[in-house]
Amino acid sequence: MLSLSGVSVAYDGVDAVVDVSLDVPAGEVLAVLGASGCGKSTLLRAVAGLEAPRSGTVVADGEDVTRVPTHRRGFALMFQDGQLFGHLTVARNVAYPLRLRRRPAAETAARVAELLELVGLVGYGDRLPGTLSGGEQQRVALARALAVRPRLLLLDEPLSALDAGLRERLAGDLRRILVEAGTTAVLVTHDHEEAFAVADRMALMRAGRVVQHGPVADVWGAPVDAEAALFLGYARVLDGARAAAVLAAAGRPGASAVALRRSALRVEPAGALAGTVVSAAATPDQVRLVADVEGLGRLDAVGGPGLAAARVPAPGAAVRLDVDPARLAPLRRARG
Ligand code: ADP
Ligand code: MG
């Protein structure tokens, strides 16, 4: 549905986005993930038509829209701060784009009711935005963005202003709402959890470039380098002899580095690695520990099925550890 090829954007001769090529199939959600300042918003603005690319093309539904003005692209935008009209009720905010297009009142009212149901705000129509929580306000902004059934929805950090717990819940809701609406969407975020919760595909950006892209599970399972792995939420990256030892224990030799999840090492009586407990604590469903592993140094590990919370090992205790091959990613290269 959306196809970018060779898109570069510069501000005063300084490149902010460099040679980005990406495709988003109809009905899918692409997350553009990267650290602050890497060019995510600039890329989104170029797709929206708010910045003119220095080179490259933006194609939507087979139509080259690179030179088409923003309001003729049929896209909708939503930002971190939903920018609701404070003096209009929730229903009026959602109806706003429909009124601009002079849709009949009955059709508008029906569409508003449908959208409020979609975003879980039935009964909120007469409230003013100032009386809503931050999460509710973002739902209203989302309903408004979806009102005219845009062919592409562009979301710039839509949950970033919310606190962590709420952000997590709303990310799941956002996924459901986008899938139910059948919208093709591009979501910009610096939060890997949000990208995983919401998107089908992911593009990882660094210094203006896309360094890796593909289905979310593929990117997660095979980060392109150590920096990508750490940004995606892996706990540690080992290289050299330490990587070789872990990969051999996992039965996946042959890579030069390895990224480990916090739960990649597991306490197992017959485990391949020997270690000493540094610290340990029980959570409701597992025992988490830090172990000094022979030849590897201090690493996180979790208690296997045989290690009940009631038997948290004491510091100094000897443990054997196994490596769970499903909880690590061999890396082709340690550096970017
Ligand atoms: P992100 O959204 O990933 O945080 P941005 O796209 O906002 O990154 O910014 C990318 C780079 O472009 C940054 O170095 C930023 O300072 C610069 N930049 C962004 N907007 C402008 C602008 N309007 N004028 C000049 N430089 C800008
Ligand atoms: Mg930004």
From TrEMBL:
All copies of domain ABC transporter, residue ranges: 2-232
Keywords assigned by UniProt, alphabetized: ATP-binding, Cell membrane, Ion transport, Iron, Iron transport, Membrane, Nucleotide-binding, Transport
GO molecular function: ATP binding
Entry annotated with the keyword Nucleotide-binding: yes
Pfam families given in the database record: ABC_tran (PF00005)
Superkingdom classification of source: Bacteria
ATP-binding as UniProt keyword: yes
SMART domains linked to this entry: AAA (SM00382)
Gene3D superfamilies in UniProt: P-loop containing nucleotide triphosphate hydrolases
Range of residues in the leader sequence: none
Protein name, UniProt field: ABC transporter ATP-binding protein
Taxonomic path: Bacteria, Bacillati, Actinomycetota, Actinomycetes, Propionibacteriales
